[in-house]
Amino acid sequence: MQPVHKSQKLANVCYDIRGPVLEHAKKMEDDGHRIIKLNIGNPAPFGFFAPDEIIEDVIVNLPSASGYSDSKGLFAARKAIMHYAQQKQLPNVGMDDIIIGNGVSELIVMAMQALLDNGDEVLVPAPDYPLWTAGVSLAGGKAVHYLCDEEQGWFPSIDDIRAKITPATRAIVVINPNNPTGAVYPPALLKQIVEVARQHQLIIYADEIYDKVLYDEVKHTSIASLAADLFVVTFNGLSKNYRACGYRAGWMILSGEKKHAKDYIEGLNMLASMRLCANVPAQFAIQTALGGYQSIDDLVASGGRLARQRDLAHKLLTDIPGVSCVKPQGALYLFPRLDPKVYPIGDDQQFILELLQEEKVLLVQGTGFNWIAPDHFRVVFLPNSDDLVEAIGRIARFLESYRKRHGAES
């Protein structure tokens, strides 16, 4: 038989959050090893569960969830999302401007498939959530990475954005709050991005899945609220704010000036219809989630569990020689830097694999988020404090051994 090869469309697609190192971790677990997993932002395994009222609404409505819904989603769910868009001051949003999907992941791929022809370019942040780069590549486009500046709190470099624009550039992706850095962008910076998009007639794709996971009383501004004259697509969902990753309930909101985007919107509607609809049971959670008590506020407040764990993980990591980290203002991650003079790393995936093998801790290397150098990794701070102390203690022990092996003890 002839070998069956994967499509060439997958040549530039990678998703190292669930990549080869994870496969090695699974084999180790099969051999009886206990792995501490700090690789994925999945709240449930760490005791962060969806609020009871959301679960109850899904259960009560299960008898009504056997059939397809409208391809864009249930009326009540989209109505609640529309009201939330109004609260966030997104301009010109009606019921037909909302499409519910099986998580934001499905909608990112859908949005790119509807937009891109071969060779089209999309500006994507570096570091990024890697599904954006993968989605662009899978649709035949080219992801062009603009730099976020660690020395400036991981804020996007406007100069670098401008330098990366070509006649083939169609859109810019803004991840705010950012995954993996935890940066939350102020209105002044967002206005600069809007101005660049305005000058070059770019679509703005705003990934705001962590817009309620905010620390130190930081406020989130939706970039669409600053761009009434532009076409903006905003993504959000239940996974993080409501600890309901497994429900796969996400949505995209089309806002601003849409007249010139009618053909593209027709393409989105076509793709939404082709997959028939998003899963219906989870859609019954959306109205209650958005309109009910926002328990995430308690978790991120000073003294709340997520805030405590962020502070603890940040201190433990930055106490390690040669490790620095911008303290995140949002999301569930830290993105620490390893000083190359102390840790001369050539292949950061191999580095993470060695950490897994020696200390049974699973992380994701920085290049897995399309970062430009092998000098970062992402840490999920969802485990409880005792487990974080244990995990980061193991990381510290591995790094001490690494310094000794490479003659870079400090």
From TrEMBL:
InterPro entries according to UniProt: Ala_Aminotransferase, Aminotransferase_I/II_large, PyrdxlP-dep_Trfase, PyrdxlP-dep_Trfase_major, PyrdxlP-dep_Trfase_small
Pfam families to which the protein is assigned, alphabetical: Aminotran_1_2
Enzyme's top EC category: transferase
Domain Aminotransferase class I/classII large: 35-395
Keyword vocabulary terms for this entry: Aminotransferase, Pyridoxal phosphate, Transferase
GO MF, any single term: transaminase activity
EC number(s) stated in the UniProt entry for this protein: 2.6.1.2
Cofactor(s) named in the record: pyridoxal 5'-phosphate
Protein family: Belongs to the class-I pyridoxal-phosphate-dependent aminotransferase family.
Listed name of the protein: Putative 8-amino-7-oxononanoate synthase
